[in-house]
Xylan alpha-1,2-glucuronidase (Reichenbachiella agariperforans), 678 residues
Amino acid sequence: TAEDGHGLWLRYTPISQEAVLTEYLQTVDHFEVHTSSETGLLIHEELTNGLTSMYQQELVATEGLEHSLQVCKTDHSLVKGLGIDAGIKEQIGAEGFLLRSVQREGKSFLLLTANTDIGLYYGTFHLLRLIQTEQSLVGLDVVEYPRIETRMLNHWDNLDRSSERGYAGFAIWDWHRLPDYLDPIYAEYARANASIGINAMVPVNVNSNALILTPMYLEKVKALADLLRPYGIKMYLTARFSAPSEIGGLATSDPLDPGVAAWWADKAKEIYSYVPDFGGFLVKANSEGQPGPHDYHRNHAEGANMLAKALAPHGGQVIWRAFVYSEENPVDRHMQANDQFVPLDGQFDDNVSIQVKNGAIDFQPREPFHPLFSAMKETRLAMEFQITQEYLGQATQLVYLGTYYEECLDAQIGIKKATVSEVIEGQSNEQEHSVIAGVANIGTDRNWTGHLFGQSNWYAFGRLAWNPDLGADAIADEWIAMAFDHDPQVHATIKDIMMHSREAAVNYMTPLGLHHLMATGHHYGPGPWVSELGRPEWNPVYYHRADSFGIGFDRTAKGSGAVLQYQKSIAKKFGNLKSCPEEYLLWFHHVSWDYEMQSGRTLWDEMGLHYQSGVDEVRRFASQWESLEGKVDARRFEEVQMLLTIHEKEAVWWKDASLLYFQTISNRPFPAEIETPK
Ligand code: GCW
């Protein structure tokens, strides 16, 4: 078959077993959609395509309740008398749904009901997913609703279609041909996102261009927003802080200048005239050279609140990023976000969220959770994950990030039993308008994500955004069942590769808490040595601090003190050499090369073994994949096979380059168990 991966996890492959198909036909052999909105049409189309493709037969043409799926809103007459209590309607809210096997007039059928059309659309994908993953529909009773309100993709895409840290071709947004030409890929994109519950997006880079806020572009924005709306996706834009002076002709962009505030208020009004349900602004300010309130000696709250006041009359939100650090600041980069934001806790307007990267440095293969998540109790905090693999092998390495996201979401922050995910959901501090964002890995490549397995990261992000407790393991199961055929050996093999892939990457790149050792600038491949860049915090040696004594960044009280930004119990655990988990050892401690690790080996030997094990794992992945020849369609098989060959070369490159470089500092022989680096 001509498989190119474009169908993502929505391939709707035929049911693999006769008995399963028989059961499905006895439960749902036809359907009726009782809503005629645009979303209703999408539901109709999805069910028709999905069911006929998986059943491999036309659906029964007759109407009637028996063996049907009835799709209707909770206020529909069909729902009355079915004993669905008001509590459920309240619980499912604006986006959730109920999927239940019911009986009426002696007929059994499946009811999909929701308060809104979007809820019905999400329920449709849920049902189709149950069938795709071949689960029983007998006695179904599912109540689902999203745990986080805004589940968004951040595209770091520029207006010229280049993409910052994108590895899957060009940006899909064709601003040149918008608004009149609506590339069919937009609808495909919207449908794929709706299938995993993503309900918001920002099509432009956080390193923003003020032009997006001009009428010429707002026309284009409107066209996109109109297209995305029936799929339940709200549009946001990045707001360049200096826009009033850049495109507004004002002499300043000082947030406390009344003229500037008025300019933004007018701009917001104008945007809402194009996009009545516009979501709001995403802002990167005073970070990596971007303009911001500090340029006018104002703080982040003064900047964010000024924009928030412009959006508030229209119901819009400001999502203000906490990824800030500056070259002028000599303080450990790890600490700068807490330093700047914690004093402002409680000062942000109600419609402001602070979007925090999962860790304090920058999407490294492994980072402890960001200390800000436990330090701002009066401020709504949002999560920013990276789906695009800037520091995780870009589009040549197979790295499943479900386990990565899960590790951070499940981390305990040191306040009672609270976890990072509860902070974002708002359970621990009772906040609405929760936000989770993922930096998208989508581009013009036929398979959307460059590496076929990049699709699993897009999928995992969406599923975890819907329910942070789902688990990376269960999500991998879903994705594999949907993206491949139903062969148990294929499934088990792919799952084994996926579930071990992230740990392997950590091992061959930056084991034991090492970080930011990627080649300077493009971040592709190893570069732990001194870089040419003047900025100290862009220089890998700033992070590993290797010297004749040992290696690692001392962030204890004796060092930079960054560990003290965590709650006491966490600071104690990470800050003590003995209790610090070895996976974070060199993140928080400067440790002797001869330090005795839990294994009894020296740190130097242990590092060598970690690098080697990363390489060994990738070799194992490659040979496991080989065993799938003839079982996975040829095109996807070969694509992944070729990429695994590159992946293996790159893992060896990482191990060899890193160990040879560190050996010039440690002056110790390599452990006998590893392949000698060349
Ligand atoms: O990860 C770093 C990237 C930059 C990016 C920045 C950010 C958009 O290397 O390319 O800029 O983070 O998150 O703002």
